[in-house]
Amino acid sequence: MTPTFAPHSDDALPVWPLWKGDSLPQEIGDTAWPTACGFEASTGQICLIPDGAGGIRGALFGLGEPSRANRERFAFAHACKLPAHVWQIAAMPEGFDPGEAALAWLLGQYRFTRYKGQATDGPRLVAPQGVDAERIQKIAAAEFLTRDLINTPANDMGPAELEARARQIADGIGATTTVIRGGELLAENLPMIHAVGRAAEDDPRLVDIRLGDSGPMLTIVGKGVCFDTGGLDIKPPSSMGLMKKDMGGAANALGLLKMLAETGAAKGRRIRVLIPAVENSIASNAFRPGDVLTGRNGLTVEVNNTDAEGRLVLADAMALGAEEKPDLMISLATLTGAARVALGPDIPPFYCDDERTAQALAQGAQSARDPLWRMPFWPAYESMIEPQIADLDNAPSGGMAGSITAALFLRRFAQGAQRYVHLDIYGWQPAAAPGRPKGGVGQGARAILAALPDMLP
């Protein structure tokens, strides 16, 4: 589906957003009806105003307590529950951001309909005056792309299909795409991508997209594990159910690429997107616990858990990207359960050694309402990723600081990049929330878009 605003129309019905405690608008006339309906302007509460002739003349919409505004910034997404009609915001209460509300409306309209037919027509919003409607629609469309990619099951979104979608996206924005697949990975010295994906029927591959030919360079690396059984260290069924989302890093990278290109943020910059697309399967030729792999940059890695495969495929892709010495490298990956334990599903941790870059990203996350939280590359934990018989361990024993040790592992392969940022995302909304229906979700892309002018001037 395509997120769009309705054209201006004289038939658009007014909706009045109200904070709890605000006076009812005089335009509705008799206030007895909202009172009788129990309308208190609680978050997401809707009260339809009748026109006296069996129709609707408008609606009141509750924003909740002003003190909870930062907690529920996208509350206006609940307005998508209004009846199917064209609506326009009738008034802007103090502290109400019309651009934010417009984006919330579009994000709240998302439905994944690939296997259930087209969604029924819902309410549409006239873009509020003074907002950049075209830009908001492009941001929402990029987020919809990310959600669609994650929500598509692995039988229809394996490495080949992910490559095809990546090519389609790249073609649509004028970017170029090259792909290394199967045995070519070994010949091109990307052995860890090959090792992780070689047991699957669908060949492992590296998708390499380039946009722009001048300016500072941003390299984005997205984890594309299209399904993760855990390999020979097989996951229990309870942990395997959501593993179609293990390519969420790649989905977010592609959504970010589309967002940067179509909003104009890519102009004057070189953008490179690297996606190692694999399926971590089980077969006689699967890589094994105890194997020692040699990465593209020459570092050896002892495999102590085949279910810690994401950092292996990212490592080779990052080492390749770092050879060009980009001004900024960003990795996006559904990498560790430890990040979810620490911060829950809504707040991905990010890691960055450069203070200016980290501050810009934190501020971008806040301004875009796309939450991130900085975590440390803690030097004292370096020893935890250094086993006895190889340079690195892909799965340190003990289980402590799992997100930090994964970030430290990846940083070893970013050497050459001027600055490096790692986002350990979840990519999934476990329960519906304002602007985020249950299912695949974008995390970090809007924050990066907002921060890019300061991160990569």
UniProtKB/TrEMBL annotation:
GO BP terms in the entry: proteolysis
Keyword Protease (UniProt): yes
MF terms (GO), sorted A to Z: manganese ion binding; metalloaminopeptidase activity
InterPro entries xrefs: Leucine_aapep/pepB, Macro_dom-like, Peptidase_M17_C, Peptidase_M17_N_1
Protein keywords: Aminopeptidase, Hydrolase, Manganese, Protease
Family, per entry: Belongs to the peptidase M17 family.
Name of the protein: Leucyl aminopeptidase
Organism for this UniProt entry: Paracoccus seriniphilus
